[in-house]
Specification:
The protein is 40% helix and 19% strand. The strands form two sheets. Strands 1-2-3-5-8-9-10-11 form an eight-stranded parallel beta barrel, surrounded by four helices. It has a two-stranded antiparallel sheet with strand order 6-7. Helix 3 links the parallel strand 4 and strand 5. Helix 3 packs across helix 5. The two termini are 21 Å apart.
Length: 283
């Protein structure tokens, strides 16, 4: 089990300075990643931060933690622009980026800007967009003429630092599970808006077994669970680790608690944190 932070960059966390403060505290406390939401929540009346600008600031303020989106609704973005943004962030962070992707669960973020909001179209755009992203990240020339996107003999430069940027898929639908099995990881929401765990270890284990069947192999595969914990919740996270979770992502959002209390939770470290062991390993 590895441990990261997932920041809901809405409301009071739409201030990128606060996310940077959380990131710096997280790295100092031994967390290994920081993910941010990617929503156009202002379309439905809630302040929201741009993930790429925010993560760029985080990349400059940190040196070790992995960075990523949890998750980007790729169907409402131009894949070529996302490919360039991810490559830039991966280089800026020294190869620390993880790309989380999904359909996008808020119809208003599509409809308000005249983007297709129906599920079949979004699913088709997501699948085609992911294939296009990974082709562009190779740095080779891409000649793509698909149903939704066209790239006419273009090579992306510079390409990402990582040979392959990890792609994690979010969602619980059958389509999301199928898609996750084809890529490098699955991001699951384990808590509700009020900070209660709603996905049991047994249910996670069922999903992990399903993913394994869909993949048809035993190769390494990440399962990231977004949840809530206290610093002494070793038993809780061990149960999820036994179920197949490889990343615990502590959920940081305004409905859970005050900013100061959430920052203190981050500073306290992961649920099974051994600060001395971490600092020895990182030096």
């Amino acid at each position: 089990m590895r441990y990261g932070i997932d920041v809901c960059t809405l409301g009071e966390f739409a201030d990128p300075g606060r996310v940077v403060e959380v990131a710096v505290a997280a790295e100092a406390a031994g967390w290994e990643a920081l993910f941010v939401w990617d929503h156009l929540a202002f379309a439905w009346g809630v302040p929201s931060a741009d993930p790429w600008v925010t993560l760029s600031a985080v990349a400059q303020a940190t040196t070790r933690i992995r960075l990523g989106t949890a998750v980007t609704a790729l169907p409402r973005r131009r894949p070529v622009v996302v490919a360039n943004a991810v490559a830039t962030l991966d280089r800026l962070s020294g190869g620390r980026f993880v790309f989380g992707a999904g359909l996008g669960g808020v119809a208003a973020e599509f409809a308000a800007f005249d983007d297709p909001a129906d599920t079949p179209t979004r699913a088709a755009r997501l699948d085609e967009g992911l294939d296009l992203l990974t082709a562009l990240w190779t740095g080779e020339r891409v000649d793509h003429h698909g149903l939704h996107y066209t790239v006419d003999n273009v090579a992306l430069a510079p390409r990402p630092v990582q040979e392959r940027v990890p792609v994690w898929i979010g969602g619980h639908s059958s389509g999301a599970m199928r898609r996750a099995a084809q890529w490098d990881g699955w991001i699951a929401g384990g808590d509700d808006e009020d900070g209660n765990m709603v996905m049991s270890p047994a249910k996670v284990a069922e999903h992990v077994q399903r993913l394994r069947r869909l993949r048809g192999d035993d190769l390494p595969f990440d399962v990231a669970l977004v949840g809530v914990s206290a610093p002494d919740d070793a038993v809780l996270v061990r149960a999820y680790a036994d179920a197949g979770v490889t990343w615990w992502l502590e959920h940081i959002h305004g409905r859970r608690d005050t900013y100061d209390n959430l920052l203190a939770r981050v500073a306290a470290g992961p649920p099974t944190h051994d600060r001395s062991a971490y600092m020895t390993a990182s030096t």
